[in-house]
Amino acid sequence: MPTRARCSLHRSRAEAGLAPTASGRSLCAERGSQRPPAGQVLRPGPRVAPASAWRWAEVMNYSHFITAVSAARKASPIRLLTELMQKSPPSVISLAGGAPNPNTFPFKMATITTGDGTAVNIGEDLMKRALQYSASAGIPELLSWLKDLQKSLHNPPTANYSPDQGQMEMCVTTGSQEGLSKVFEMLINPGDNILLDSPTYPGTLAALRPLGCNIINVPSDQYGIIPKALKEILSRWSPEDVRKHNNIPKFLYTIPNGGNPTGTSLTTDRKKEIYQLARQYNFLVIEDDPYYFLQFDKPWAPTFLSMDVDGRVIRTDSFSKILSSGLRIGFLTGPKPLIDRVILHIQVSTMHTSTFTQLMIAQLLQQWGEKGFLEHVDRVVAFYRDQRDAMLAAADKWLKGLADWHAPAAGMFLWIKIKGVSDTQQLITEKALQKEVLLVPGGAFNIDSSVPSSYVRASFSLSSPAQMDQKNSIFSSNFLC
After folding, report:
1. Domains contained in the chain, CATH given
2. Tens of pLDDT along 145-188?
3. Are 286 and 194 in contact (CB under 8 A)?
């Protein structure tokens, strides 16, 4: 790289607002008494003990994590102008913006009725706003509601930190997949090491592979990532490597509840151990949790976000499984210096999530309140719990002795290991499909999809109990006997 360009990129890191962040024992002790009380519905997560004696440092320096390209991104003046106009009084006359005149839009008003009879009314004035450009981080009323929800459910230690100390920040994304993609773009250089537990969500692998990173598989079992195995992998790096940030893994990615495809959920004790290792080896934790609201038993599991005294957790949430998958509403929570970077990536791609979708969801959530929202979640969970039980009953009836599985504690999937079959690819794509039984071969979820897998993923979200029984019967009698 030419000297001038190299200096420019180095300078841009300092200009990006990525100042070192206080964290660890001293900050935890200093801020502990200022944290807000836990919500009334779910218990806050446990705080973690101090990391080991040779932990990398008592600061978070986010510039170690972001790429030079991400550090070089600057806020769009036009995007900032859009946000300024939205905060301005109606008396302001703007000759600056390039927004189209809303009087030319064909849509004038709408009323949306929910299953419980709640009516979401979008009148003419609100419709004009709904059809217009909006802030890249999300519309203010939705962001405010979501921040209150995160504080109530997770009680993040960072919620009361100052912005330069890794204060909790949020942004709305076009589904959690967009959020993940932007986070990966922000963090990964070719050749970087990252950690994840495979098998995992193919969308994650599809986003990671083109970035040229080294994906290190962390062994897992029915309770998620095995901390002992993670510690063994990390032992490749010495304290000196960590201090110099010498190619240590940048982050660990995991789906902690109802993992796709395995249905596994990380235990609280394992999360604590993993977070301690993250502190010791100075890597971030990407907590991809689209099935958080589909946990079948209460109290819901404490999250990495609830344990994050350092500001090293980036959490993705989604309304796809509980409100609508087509509305494409996800949200990111994490330390402000990193979330602000993500927003800059959004500014130059999608610009913002659909304003109409955000306003519709915000109107509904404001009418429901947190209590009404969680009551809706409980109804959704009850449905999927019954679906899971029907799938387990069908599997027990038709697959016992032919396959192995574990009952998922969350999510939509049953991960089935077929006995006596080394690879399910041909079994599913050719034979089973001819009998109109569609399952996903396990190899699709491997880091290397060409590696044989004896597993299949069965979803219990759409089929009726009778259909589950019928398809398990066909699968058993035609292919496994």
Report:
1. 3-81+114-370 (3.40.640.10), 384-480 (3.90.1150.10)
2. 999 999 999 999 999 998 878 899 999 999 999 999 999 999 99
3. no
Residue type, position 409, single letter = A
Distances (CA, A) of 257 to 113, 262, 277, 373: 31, 10, 20, 20
- Compute CA distances 70 → 18, 21, 267, 314, whole Å: 11, 19, 34, 16
Residue 40 reports pLDDT greater than 60: no
* Residues 47, 27: Cα–Cα separation, whole Å: 13
Alpha-carbon distance 185 to 202, whole Å? Answer: 17
**Amino acid occupying residue 177:** Q
Residues 82, 88, 94: CA angle, nearest 5 degrees: 65
pLDDT one-digit tens code per residue, 316-337? 999 999 999 999 999 999 999 9
CA–CA separation, 28 and 98 (whole Å): 46
Nearest CA to 190 among 170, 166, 215? Answer: 215
For 332-379, what is each residue's pLDDT tens digit? 999 999 999 999 999 999 999 999 999 999 999 999 999 999 999 999
The pLDDT of residue 157:
97
Are 119 and 112 within 8 A, CB to CB? Answer: yes
Q: Indicate whether 21 pLDDT > 70.
A: no
Question: Quick one: tokens of 383?
Answer: 């449905």
Q: What is the dihedral of CA 308, 314, 316, 317, to 10 degrees?
A: 30
Sequence-ordered list of residues with C-beta below 8 angstroms from that of 332, at least 6 positions apart, any chain: 170, 171, 173, 176, 179, 183, 314, 315, 316, 317, 339, 342
Mean pLDDT of the chain: 87
Rounded Cα gap, residues 344 and 182, in angstroms: 9
Distance CA 187, CA 365 (A): 33
106 in helix, strand or coil? coil
Distance separating alpha carbons of residues 71 and 193, to the nearest angstrom: 19
Kind and range of the H or E run holding 305 = helix 304-307
pLDDT, tens digit (0-9, with 9 covering 90-100), for 415-435: 999 999 999 998 888 887 777
Radius of gyration of the chain measured on its C-alpha atoms? 24
- 8 Å CB contact between 468 and 394: yes
CB-CB neighbours of 463 under 10 Å: 17
